[in-house]
Amino acid sequence: ILARYLLMLSFNNCLDVARHLPYLFHVITFLVCTGPLSLRASLHGLVINIIHSLCTCTKPTFSEETRRVLNLSLDEFSLPKFYLLFGISKVKSAAVTAFRSSYRHLPGERWHTVERSFSAGAGSDRERLSLTSLETITDALL
To answer: Around Cβ 42, how many Cβ atoms within 10 Å?
Structure first.
């Protein structure tokens, strides 16, 4: 849920991504190879929103070369290669998947968690992510 809040706050730079960039990238690299599909899709969306915010923000100002690199990074993170690295290669829309609920509610129950797929190996949406994937993502973020 907190990753989804970060995702929403990063849209239109409501999070002041330039100021919080090291912390955001730390959270992303810490969680990128964990959790259910919706968490991994949220983290991918967070990266996209961060780069987009940096491309469009007015403060700090970036050189044209830096803006060009940011635009190329935005294109690169949207490639199927990065969907695979984030473990979301089988989704049609990462944005929709990020907000898909990982909870099921039984009729008559209010906000009672019936199923939660945050534990390792649980759920059918698992893709095996290697340290090489983490390394590639971290290098791209750097």
So the answer is: 29
As given in the structure block, the two tokens for residue 25 are 């990238």
Amino acid letter at 26? H
pLDDT tens readout for residues 126-142 = 566 788 989 999 999 99
Assessment of whether the complete model's pTM goes beyond 0.90: no
Helix 17-31 / helix 37-56 crossing angle, nearest 10 deg:
160
16 C-beta neighbours (distance < 10 Å), count = 13
Residue 26 host element (H or E) = helix 17-31
Spatial contact of 62 and 73, defined as CB atoms under 8 Å apart: no
7, burial (CB in 10 Å: exposed 0-12, middle 13-18, buried 19+): buried
Phi, psi dihedral angles at 60 (to 5 degrees): -75, 160
Contacts of 140 (CB under 8 A, 6+ apart): 73, 76, 77, 82
